[in-house]
Amino acid sequence: SLVTVAKDMGDHWEVTGSKAFISGGGATDVYVTMVRTGSPGAKGITCMAILKSDEGVTFGKNEQKHGWNSQPTCIVSFDKVKVPKTRIIGKEGEGFKIAMKGLDGGRVNIATCSLGAAQRSLDLAIQYSQDRKQFNTSLAGFQNTQFKLAEMAAAVHGSRLMIRQAAAAMDAKDPNATTYCAMAKMTATEQCYTVVDNALQIHGGYGYLKDFPVERYLRDLRVHRILEGTNEVMRMIVSRSLL
User: Fold this and answer.
1) What is the number of alpha carbons within 13 Å of residue 178 lying toward its C-beta?
2) For residue 101, is pLDDT > 90?
3) How distant, in Å, are the alpha carbons of 11, 144, 157 from that of 220?
4) Are residues 170 and 105 in contact, defined by beta-carbon separation less than 8 angstroms?
5) Angle at Cα 131 formed by Cα 128 and Cα 135, nearest 5°?
6) Sign of CA dihedral 32, 37, 38, 41
7) 3-state secondary structure at position 225
8) Which strands, in side-by-side order, build the sheet including 57-59?
9) Which pLDDT score, from 0 to 100, does residue 184 have?
10) What average pLDDT is seen over the chain?
């Protein structure tokens, strides 16, 4: 589906096309870009660096997102952009291989982002449940709250262990590293989102207010099931390793 094309013009490449949902679009000076320099398929993809200052590089409007609002996101367009041959990263035709090398680490990274927000939300929920009183009893005094916090803590701990195993497998160049990273990304992003959602529920109506950070964590975490390969793709990767 990669349709951004780079034509060989002798002493430079001429790049035409566009990229959607680019994080940092318009605010970043350098764009590591996958372009098609050859035939259809993985071997026709090349990685090159394109500068914000290059003539022909333009940016769409900043997308209005559900979360991640501190980071600009937009379409980046290339209209006959001249890119020197010296800006190829790796070798011609190695773009797909370079992209694949970064995926496992990206999935561990997104899973870790979810974990951090879940841990913080758990901490906030514990503190709030101890401070907030209903019927002359703190929320933490009710068994339902205690059980919910226990489930949240177990989900956070389990996610942390999966992420660490995936990271260790990457470092060790374990042949199952890609599967472990997919498992960690799929599991942590889903379980940690549920933890944050439960933390908001414990806060009650206050959790829905922007005065409290939990509602922002909930909005920010939702996209983690889409980034670095959707969780449906993670399930494909894991199932293929089993069958």
Assistant:
1) 16
2) no
3) 44, 27, 20
4) yes
5) 110
6) positive
7) helix
8) 57-59, 73-84, 12-23, 5-8, 30-36, 45-51, 88-89
9) 98
10) 96
Q: What is the DSSP letter of 194?
A: H
Q: Note the pTM of the prediction, 2 decimals.
A: 0.89
Mean pLDDT in residue range 79-83: 97
How far is residue 28's CA from residue 227's CA, in Å, rounded to a whole number?
A: 19
Catalytic annotation, residues? 228
Which amino acid, one-letter code, is at 24? G
What residues contact residue 199 under an 8 Å CB cut-off, 6+ apart?
Answer: 121, 122, 124, 125, 152, 207, 214, 217
Q: How far apart are CA 81 and CA 65, in angstroms?
A: 29
Tell me how far apart the alpha carbons of residues 87 and 64 are, in angstroms, rounded to a whole number.
Answer: 32
CA-CA distance, 62 to 204, in Å (whole number)?
33
Structural tokens at position 120: 């913080």
Share of the chain above pLDDT 70, in %: 100
What digits encode the pLDDT tens for the residues 110-162? 999 999 999 999 999 999 999 999 999 999 999 999 999 999 999 999 999 99
User: Tokens at residue 160, please?
Assistant: 């942390």
Which pLDDT score is estimated for 206? 96
Distance (Å) of CA 45 to CA 85, 98, 101: 15, 10, 14
Please check the confidence at residue 186 and state whether its pLDDT lies above 90: yes
